[in-house]
Specification:
The complex is a heterodimer of chains A (about 625) and B (about 400). Chain A is an alpha+beta fold and about 625 residues long. Helices cover about 35% and strands about 20% of the residues of chain A. Chain B has a three-stranded antiparallel β-sheet with strand order 1-2-3. Classes of the chains: A alpha+beta (about 625), B mainly alpha (about 400).
Chain lengths: ~625, ~400
């Protein structure tokens, strides 16, 4: 047979040896040269699971717990095990119509909406079942094979106040995910507003990783390396706020059925004692399963409960601004504290005839000027300041005047630790140049600034801060809500000290103005803010409002010497400052300093609490509206 | 040892290859069916390996019987078998058991056993080719007298298998060409066949990619996806997944490894015990273990060539050459799939992959080769006697 085969034998053998060689080379390539498959091999069997840290607690200034976490349950299901489910009973326990059950399954199975769907993998069937509902459901869990509850936490706010300050927690949006460089994943929860948002990094803690073996269906098979390579989740830091939660509650109660703000600051530190935005809402409304629905409701409400008025709403400061007008005049030396003025009830100036708001004796000094809140006195004071012969051009002195205002935090952001704050408005030189031409304006053109009207706009926070600076005789600290963040690992405070701002007014200039503000309450326009035993200083304001009734305002501080609290109150469309704002401020101050309201002042408290201005805001059914924003027990 | 070989006649080294391959097969199957055993057999991990052992025992019995039969009888048996295989293939095409869109299996009535008809047809065809080649040896260069009677049966069988199992059909044609080459068919004719084969194949591929997917019936879409995912690895996820997991298994094996039963990839590879068993073996026994398998097949081929050289009659030589080549080509293609040298096909690794049908027909093929070798040894024994 040899001759038959010989000539083709070599070819034949070479062919097969070459093929075999090809294998060995290929195997060598896959094993040794290309490292891709080795790393893929690791990914295949080991999966990193996230371990979520608990969010930090929030305390008020007295150590009272005001935000904590509450257990709720996500109802999970492993689809392939979910057979012969008593869906009627399940829907009944969840409180959903039966159609939702089938709908929910379709949603889960829709690969477009739910990319991670696998019949082996746990799917979230129903989110955020309350502890109460879950405990009922748990009894019947045996009727629903494949279903089980997974505990999660949501925020709970036991005091039901300070919603816009504390903020809320919700699912992270795409923008935040992109900006987080891979830290956040869809479905994670983050702070969406208030200090929950500002201090997200501290409150949120740091996720940990748990490495587990998984099988081909991605089911967990056990921990990898006995957890040696796992990283622990670091719980969120506990946050100590500056709020006095009792005062906050009291303030919200006083402001019920009124639109407006209360801002109370401790002058010596810049700590916010209370920051009321009214109407408020129960922050628990934005927690858990009800969040979406309630959020929609709150967004649509005409009274804008989600709007943080203390930092976002701006008002002409009105007479409360006269304090600063007087201080600037004193600092500039255009008049001294004993500058007097005879008010005839009318102010004639540059062809204008301006009226004083009321009749009062002649003004002998700045103290009486403030006490009577005499408009002509401050027009004259403002005019004296702007017409100072030491300055060549109005632009020079007005520019300086703006700087004085800025040094009190007006027309600039105060830097409060809340996500949004507006600057308000102190009109600039540029603004007037543009409006009237460089030579087209003089003191008479801008005279209304002298009584806090015209283009000037301030936020309630800025107003309170202004009076904190006056109380301090010339300086203020950046107002803030959070004073201490305790790192759970190091136990140290993570916050930097707050900045001290020195105003452009010398401390001695404040002495007479202080006296003046004291006499306003003792014997002037703010007598309704007078509290026996407390030396309260302040100034009412009635900001003209072209859209309706004037805004009632009061700003002040107490006690006169060694002030403990500076406060600003605005009640929209509340009329005179003495009607609502001044008594509200006095009640807040009394509550803060004395902790109780004197018996004889209780009728005032009652009158304020019962006052209902909702009709003025176009709400017809005032009884039901007042309860809209508060969850029922 | 010599006791054993009193009963197991023929080339002892081929017997050794058979035992070694079965050894690897059992190890691989025992390891890679563990997941399946837990899923379907309630953790009875011996279930599949025992079942396979049963098939191997049957196969071994058949191997034993076939190797004792004088190979000259196979000439006539080949003719009968091949003729019988044609209606069986047609029957399978229409009434076979469907698996992955392919009708590859038929059930033997009464017994209830299923088997893949293409396995039978392949065996029958190669035996028949050996017969035809030996009969036409006198005027082997004649186109009409020799080439056509050899080519046409090959094409007929291949065409009948192709719709359901294209890769096996291609392997059959490929093996046929090799056998013709060994059988001294004119190189001119072989070149002609190869040329037209390439032409038809490229025409077919063009059609596959020009025609809209909706017009592709049955398996044609699967073929297209396999070719696509091989040439452009972003197409069909399932095919790529297999290849990827297979490569991961290979990468995990390392050069030298001894980790019997320790494969992780058996949990990720679909059907790790059949078509992809080679990658599990590499994962557990390293490149060295994988290399040993390649060498075993090559060594087997070498022993077949030895038989061919020594065989006194053309039929015996062609029979051993054809069956040997067929088995080794099948093995090479299976391993080429595993290391992703060629697109995914559905061929098993002879004697190693799990599966009754394949084990039985492979055993028969080995038995026939051994029968030829036994005869060669008897002849040379007689020659030696004469010499002495």
């Amino acid at each position: 047979m040899k001759d038959l085969f010989k000539n083709r034998r070599l070819f034949f053998q070479i062919a097969f040896v070459l093929i075999a060689l090809a294998f060995v080379l290929r195997l060598f390539y896959v094993q040794v040269v290309d490292t891709k498959y080795v790393s893929l091999a690791r990914n295949n069997a080991i999966k990193a699971l996230d371990v979520y840290p608990t969010r930090g607690f929030v305390y008020d200034r007295n150590g009272e717990l005001i935000v904590y976490n509450e257990a709720i349950y996500d109802l999970m299901v492993i689809p392939r095990q979910a057979k012969n489910v008593d869906s009627v009973k399940l829907c009944e326990l969840l409180g959903i119509p039966l159609e939702r059950y089938t709908e929910r399954w379709e949603e889960l199975k829709d690969k477009k909406k739910n990319r991670g769907y696998s019949t082996y993998k746990a799917q979230t069937f129903w989110k955020q079942v309350s502890q109460k509902d879950y405990s009922r459901l748990q009894e019947f869990l045996y009727l629903f094979p494949g279903f089980y509850g997974q505990v999660r936490t949501i925020r709970h706010y036991p005091h039901r106040v300070a919603a816009t300050i504390l903020g809320d927690v919700g699912e992270v949006d795409d923008k935040t995910i992109d900006a987080s460089e891979g830290y956040y994943k869809p479905g994670d929860y983050v702070g969406k507003s208030g200090i929950e948002k500002v201090y997200e990094k501290e409150l949120g803690g740091r996720r940990g990783k748990r490495l587990v073996f998984v099988d081909v269906h991605n089911r967990e098979q056990g921990s990898f390396g006995d957890g040696e390579f796992d990283t622990l989740a670091i719980s969120g830091s506990n946050v100590e706020t500056t709020l006095n939660i009792a005062l906050q509650e009291y303030g919200e109660a006083l402001m019920r059925n009124k639109k407006g703000s209360i801002v109370a600051i401790e002058p010596s530190t810049g700590e916010i004692l209370a920051l009321v935005s009214s109407p408020g809402y129960d922050p628990n409304l934005l927690c858990g399963a009800v969040r979406g629905e309630n959020f929609k409701k709150l967004t649509k409400d005409t009274l804008l409960p989600l709007y943080s008025r203390p930092t976002l709403a701006t008002y002409p400061p009105g007479s409360t601004f006269k304090t600063l007008v007087a201080l600037i005049a004193l600092q500039e030396g255009v008049q001294d504290e004993n500058y007097g003025y005879v008010c005839s009830g009318m102010y004639f100036f540059a062809g204008l005839a301006l009226k004083c708001s009321h009749h009062h004796p002649p003004i002998a000094n700045v103290i009486q000027g403030l006490q009577q809140s005499c408009n002509p006195y401050f027009w004259q004071t403002f005019r004296n300041t702007i017409e100072n012969p030491n300055y060549k051009k109005i632009q020079d002195i007005y520019g300086k005047w703006v700087e004085y205002c800025n040094s009190f935090g007006l027309g600039v952001k105060t830097g409060i630790d809340l996500p949004s704050e507006v600057r308000g408005n102190i009109p600039s030189v540029k603004y007037f140049n543009k409006l009237y031409g460089e030579k087209g304006w003089r003191s008479s053109t801008i005279i209304s600034l002298g009584i806090g009207q015209g283009e000037i706009l301030v936020t309630p926070l800025q107003m309170a801060n202004l009076y904190a600076a006056v109380a301090n005789k010339g300086y203020w600290f950046t107002p803030h809500i959070v004073k201490k963040i305790t790192n759970p690992v190091t136990g140290k405070n993570e916050l930097k000290p707050f900045e001290k701002h020195i105003t452009k007014i010398a401390p001695e200039k404040f002495t007479y103005v202080n006296e003046g503000l004291f006499s306003v309450v003792e014997a002037g326009t703010a007598r309704s803010a007078r509290i026996e035993g407390i030396t309260m200083c302040g100034k009412t304001g009635t900001a003209q409002n072209p859209h309706g009734d004037d805004h009632s305002m009061f700003a002040g501080y107490a006690p006169k010497d060694n002030p403990k609290i500076a406060i600003a109150v605005i009640v929209e469309n509340g009329g005179f400052g003495s009607t609502y704002a001044a008594p509200i401020a006095s009640l807040m101050v009394e509550k803060y300093l004395n902790d109780t309201i004197q018996t004889k002042r209780l009728p005032i408290e009652k009158r304020i609490m019962e006052a209902n201005l909702l009709r003025k805001y176009g709400i017809v059914d005032t009884a039901s509206a007042s309860n809209t924003f508060f969850a029922k027990d | 040892m010599s006791n054993v070989f009193k009963y197991l006649q023929g080339d002892r080294l081929i017997w050794l290859v058979v035992f070694l391959l079965i050894g690897f097969s059992m190890l691989g199957i025992y390891s890679s069916t563990s997941t399946l055993a837990f899923r379907l057999q309630g953790g009875n991990t011996e279930y599949y390996v025992m079942k396979q052992f049963f098939y191997v025992a049957i196969g071994f019995g058949l191997m034993f019987v076939t190797h004792l039969v004088d190979y000259r009888y196979y000439s006539r048996i080949a003719q009968i078998l091949w003729i019988a295989s044609i209606p069986l293939l047609i029957y399978t095409m229409f009434f076979g058991t469907e698996l992955n869109d392919a009708n590859r299996w038929i059930t033997i009535p009464l017994v209830g056993l299923t088997f893949q008809t293409s396995d039978l047809a392949k065996l029958a065809l190669i035996m028949y080719l050996a017969r035809q080649l030996s009969l036409k040896q006198d005027n082997i260069s004649d186109f009409k007298e020799a080439f056509l009677p050899i080519l046409l049966p090959t094409l007929l069988t291949a065409i009948l298998i192709a719709p359901e199992n294209l890769s096996t059909a291609l392997i059959i044609v490929f093996t046929g060409v090799f056998v013709m080459f060994v059988g001294r068919v004119s190189l001119k004719h072989i070149a002609l066949l190869a040329g037209s084969g390439i032409l038809i194949l490229s025409l077919f591929l063009t059609l596959l990619f020009v025609m809209p997917e909706s017009a592709l019936k049955g398996r044609t879409l699967t073929w297209k996806h396999r070719v696509e995912s091989f040439s452009n690895p972003t197409g069909n996820a399932d095919e790529e997944y297999q290849v990827l997991q297979s490569k991961i298994a290979i990468a995990k094996g390392g050069i030298v490894n001894l980790n019997a039963g320790g494969s992780d990839q058996k949990n990720f590879l679909p059907h790790p015990y059949s078509d992809f068993i080679y990658s599990i073996i590499i994962e557990e026994y390293g490149l060295l273990g994988g290399g040993v398998i390649v060498l075993l097949y090559l060594f087997f081929l070498y022993r077949c060539v030895r038989i061919v050289l020594k065989a006194p009659k053309a039929f015996g030589a062609f029979l051993a050459a054809g069956l040997g080549i067929a088995l080794v080509i099948q093995a090479m293609i299976n391993m080429a799939v595993v290391v992703n040298l060629v697109p995914v096909t559905g061929v098993t690794l002879p004697l190693v992959s799990m599966g009754g049908s394949s084990a039985i027909f492979t055993s028969i093929a080995f038995g026939i080769i051994l029968s030829v070798s036994r005869n060669v040894e008897l002849q040379s024994g007689e020659e030696n006697l004469e010499m002495a």
